[in-house]
Amino acid sequence: MTMLLNQIEEREHDSQGVAEEVTACSFCKGNNIVFDAERGEKLCNNCGIVLAEGVETEDLGLDTKDRIDSTLHNGISSSLMTYDKGLSTVIPFANTDGNGVALNAEQRSSAQRMRKWNTISNSNRSYHRNLKNAFAIIIRIKDKLSLSDPLIEKSAYYYRKVIDLDIIKGRSIKGFVVGCVYAACRESNIPRTIEEVAEVADADKVFASKCYRLLVRRLKLRLPEIDGTSHLAKIANNAMISEKTVRRAAEMMSVMKQDPISFGKDPGALASAVLYAACLEQGEKIAQGHVASAANVSIVTLRKRFIDVRKVFPNVPNGPTDLPLVKARN
Fold it and tell me: Are 156 and 83 in contact (CB under 8 A)?
């Protein structure tokens, strides 16, 4: 075994010596040899052929050593989604000290007692228990709605503010979790409604809306207005509407947003009505119930918003029965 290791070391030393002696390209006979310190390769600058691999230099070794030393004791990154932000210490279950020496019986007993009290202290505070329950719900919402990590971090930040302001006493954890996630979606312009978040979290949407309004009022949040255009793509994908119709619906939505008749209306319902009007205008036959189901609104709401859309666009057909007349008129 020792002889085999010596032979391998000799081969590596010989190959490194050959690599260091490369001064000319064996393919184009050029002398312009370039060394890539990041990959440890020598290559020809004229034809690009690799002449030697695995070449090590003193500078490369120092760079690697510095890089290893800088990341040796970093550990996991801090996160607001962890109840202790990832900064608490954990006593390992290995019965050895820092030098790897086994502990005696008395030291093992002391270490086991410290582990027990460390575990109890991490879960003994109601503050930590509250955060653990809330963050478990947030992670479930993230997985079901496919939300991004920065948005979840913002939700955790809002929830920590709620606990610090002591406004969660006597109220549901789920309600404030739904409010925090929805506020983060509003801030990031993510087209998610509070009904969708409440349904995923299995929370009461009425109480979640109250918690959201209390959250906005106490934290003094300045959230941007909901743009109905962001709902068009989601509704069109659910209803399988053509891209040409979606582009026409986006043009109509830009006009609707400037008209006072759209002020105070539900953006999702308005987007579904505009999309239905665009389908009628483009001659794409689709049922109102199908669009309403894709937009998660009632048919009555869709019809009311469709009436508002026809006030701005009077040339839009009143229904599928008017499509042949529109085509003949055109």
Answer: no
Give the pair of three-digit tokens for residue 203.
Answer: 């929370």
Q: How many domains does the chain have?
A: 3
Q: What are the two backbone dihedrals, phi and then psi, of residue 43, each rounded to the nearest 5 degrees?
A: -140, 160
Q: What is the pLDDT of residues 174-214, one digit of tens each?
A: 999 999 999 999 888 888 888 889 999 989 989 999 999 99
pTM of the model: 0.60
- Written as six digits, the tokens of 80 are 């607001």
* Residue 318 lies in domain: 229-329
Tell me the backbone φ, ψ of residue 44, rounded to 5 degrees.
-85, 130
Q: What are phi and psi of 321, to 5 degrees?
A: -70, -20
Token pair recorded at residue 173: 């954890």
CA angle, corner 178, sides to 173 and 179, nearest 5?
Answer: 100
Closest among 247, 145, 231 to 196, alpha carbons compared: 145
**CATH number of the domain bearing residue 164:** 1.10.472.10
- Could you tell me if 178 and 208 lie in one domain? yes
Q: Are residues 241 and 314 in the same domain?
A: yes
